[in-house]
Amino acid sequence: MKKKYKRPEAICYLCSEYSEVYRRDGEDRKPVCQKCYRKEHTQQKEMCFECEKIKKICIRNDKNQPICANCYTIKNKKVCFICNKLERVCIRDEMGNPICKSCRRKNIKGVCKICGKFRWLELFEEKICHNCYANYRYKTDGFFPSQV
Known about the structure:
Distance between the termini: 48 Å
Shape: elongated
Number of strands: 14
Helix content: 10-25%
Largest sheet: 3 strands, antiparallel
Number of domains: 3
Strand order of the largest sheet: 5-6-7
Oligomer: single chain
Radius of gyration: 23 Å
Structural class: alpha+beta
C-alpha cells in the first residue's frame, strides 16, 4: 500500500504561521499556506476609485468603477430617518429614506399579505414579510415562481 503524499511544512511568509506549504509565491518561491493563498488569490486587486489604493474590490459603481469594501462601507453610511444616527443603510422605506439595521428590526412591522402574520416587512409597498420574501423570491410584477 502506497503512502499518501504529505505536503512539506514551513513558516508562511504572509501570516508567519507554521503549516503545510500550499504554494510557493514569487521568484523567491516563498512558502504560502492554503489560507493565505486563497485570501490573496481568489479575488483580484484593483485600484479603488474612491481611495485610489490597490485593494480587493467589493462592488462596482454605476460607471463600472471598482470600490473597495472600506470605501463602500463609509460611503453607504447615511443619517437614519428614524433614529437620526449616522449608520450604515440597511434598507430604504417606500419614500427612499435610509433606515439602519436596528431601526428596521424595531419599526418596520405589519401584516404580510401572503401569510397574514404580523411580522417585519421586507417589501413595504407590497406588504411582504421577510420570511415570504426569502421563501418565494418575490418579483416586482407580483409573480411567484413555482420552484422555491
